[in-house]
Structure formats: structure tokens, C-alpha cells
Design brief:
single chain; 76 residues; alpha+beta; SH3 type barrels; 18% helix; 41% strand; globular
Length: 76
């Protein structure tokens, strides 16, 4: 399917994080949550119209704001 942002992934699909399009602060915050390039991530659910997106990294589920999720690029 190629590289898309996390917001465009379908619920239940899995992919690998390829890059994070943001500054050092955003990258550090996501890194603290375990989201970094090379990590496999599963989109659990997303709200209609810009709500939070829930992802699974390993065995942990994390809610990420829509703005942050648009900057996470995933290869499905």
C-alpha cells in the first residue's frame, strides 16, 4: 500500500513506522511512548472527524491526538 500517515490507516491494520515528520520535541515525546522509526504499530481505532487515534505498540495501547498522528508516517 505504501507510506501513509497514521490517520489514513484503517482500523485493525498494522504497519511499520518509517518516519516522524516533526521537531525534536515531538520525536522525543513519541519516543517516550515507544513510537519510533522501525517499530511495528497497529491502529486499534480512530474517531470520526479529527478525534484521538488509539494505537497498539507491543502490548500497550496509546491514544494519540489527531495532529500528532498526522506526522507519523507508516508503511502498511
Amino acid at each position: 500500500m505504501g507510506k501513509i500517515s497514521l490517520t489514513k490507516m484503517e482500523a485493525g491494520s498494522e504497519g511499520s513506522v518509517t518516519s516522524i515528520e516533526g521537531g525534536h520535541g515531538l520525536q522525543a515525546r513519541l519516543d517516550a511512548m515507544g513510537i519510533r522509526p522501525g517499530v511495528n504499530i497497529t491502529k486499534v481505532s480512530g474517531q470520526f472527524m479529527r478525534g484521538p487515534i488509539i494505537v497498539r505498540v507491543g502490548t500497550t495501547q496509546i491514544a494519540i491526538g489527531f495532529g500528532m498522528a498526522t506526522r507519523i508516517i507508516v508503511e502498511v
